Amino acid sequence: MSVHDTTGPLLEARGVNVSVDGRDILRDVNFSINHGEFTGLIGSNGAGKTTLFRVILGIQEHAVGEVLVHGEPLARANRSLGYVPQKVLFDPDLPIRARDLVALGADGHRYGLRRRPRALHEAVEEMLDAVDASAFADRRVGGLSGGEQQRVLIAHSLISRPELLLLDEPLANLDPGSVQEIIALLHRVSKRQRVAILLSAHEMNPLLPVMDRIVYVANGHVASGTTDEVVRPNVLSALYGHHVDVLRVHGRVLVVATALPVGPPPSDEHPEFVVE
Amino acid sequence: MFASFMTNAWISGTIVALLAGAVGFFVVLRGASFAAHAIPNGAFAGAAGAYLVGISPLVGLVSFAVLAALGIGVSSRRTRNDVATALSLVAMLALGAAFLAVNLLYEPTINALLFGEILGVSSSQILPVIVLGVVSVIVLAWFYRPLLFTSVAPELARARGIATTTVDVAFLVVVALATALTVPVVGALLTFSLMIGPPAAARILVSRPGWAVAGSIGLSVVTVWASIAASYLFNLPIGFFVGALGAVLYLGARVVARRRATHPAT
Ligand SMILES: Nc1ncnc2c1ncn2[C@@H]1O[C@H](COP(=O)(O)OP(=O)(O)OP(=O)(O)O)[C@@H](O)[C@H]1O
Ligand SMILES: [Mg+2]
To answer: SS3 for chain A, per residue?
Structure first.
């Protein structure tokens, strides 16, 4: 449905720097995201994942550098991006059903009081169905569980047919079964609707089966590429600024610091002896 | 109570109820109750000031209510919203007190401004009330969806490219207009209860946004009509009945919602 060419990368970040109150949060960040690919944005608490999303959306203050979508600078109201923030709180008394929230994703930005066309109602049904949310479509969003809300939010951001879906820690607070379900759902949707996904998480392991590329944030720096290119001792050691090993056990990846740190407990910027 | 001298009361009361029901729905949705409490106090100061300089109280009500709304809207960008609201509220109340002291207003006039007066809207004011009421409703209908969206999930709305700050300030101005029209009828102290009671009850009872707005407007109209009638019959300030009915509606809705939750079949 896009008029743009699909040969180059969908999104490109070039030389992005963010510093707040003289503190560098992100330094010289470069990476790109390709059409229809699943990219994991991996980093520990405070690494700068949310900040990076805000940069991509053009709502982060004190950000320098370029973010190009289809090779062009990002307009603020860019319709090719869908976004689900890390924390979305809904009051249980809010008179908004799951389907109303999904519909707002399609026409919530429109002024004027037109009747919703039948096509919109159909699109809402389709999206609710795609995320397996039809069963609770008529319940208030505030009364849904975390995993149910996550599905509704995904449907909400998909209905505008974005080319890139930004999901900030959608797997936090979900039980392992729901984590698998949401990942499978996102993978399915991304292939079917050909939408690229950038999903942030602390843990890369649940994403390994579906992840095409990884953007690894630590220490204010970013390493990106395929999982095999990035999750290597030399790349991650350079990123963390000290030596780490990458262990593969039973299909899981563990990033471990080679020597146990002595003295004060490790700060946020350095991995504890097991990060992944 | 349907005598001709009551015509203005019924007309302005109905307009005020329609507007307060619609505006109040969003006030409750956004958790902006405190602003809805502060703005009428600004409007009160404006009315007192208007008497002082001898202009129409409606002019004073509108200009001060809008000023209070803009004060809250602009300063809440810098400080926390409730602090900004409290500061605007205090400034307006102080001003109102000063105006009253200089003015030596006739006591029933002050009472009417504070607690409402069914005959509070004169024939010369009925046309401006209708015009302002209709304008406010049109503005509200025009930005209904972005307003709903920013009220429900501001972060999502911002990511969708909605200028949320503009929507916030525009909404406060509509609250100000609705307030300016409501104060002469219901009184400055209880305008707030008309904007909170019926919408809070409606949103508990109805889960669809569009129907909840309609329910809020319906309950608000019933509240005002019942209050006008009761005020006429018992010769008590209309604000008293509006406040009491608002509280009863809210508690009633809570009870109904709880019974629904425990007996889902009924
Ligand atoms: N408004 C702000 N002012 C100052 N510092 C901030 C601000 N927002 C974020 N930071 C800092 O920027 C760093 C990155 O924050 P960010 O929220 O992007 O991390 P994150 O990777 O999303 O963490 P988490 O996994 O906990 O969500 C943190 O050190 C945080 O303290
Ligand atoms: Mg975060």
So the answer is: CCCCCCCCCCEEEEEEEEEECCEEEEEEEEEEECCCCEEEEECCCCCCHHHHHHHHHCCCCCEEEEEEECCEECCCCCCCEEEECCCCCCCCCCCCEHHHHHHHHHHCCCCCCCCCCHHHHHHHHHHHHHCCCHHHCCCEHHHCCHHHHHHHHHHHHHCCCCCEEEECCCCCCCCHHHHHHHHHHHHHHHHHHCCEEEEEECCCHHHCCCCCEEEEEECCEEEEECHHHHCCHHHHHHHHCCCEEEEEECCEEEEEECCCCCCCCCCCCCCCCECC
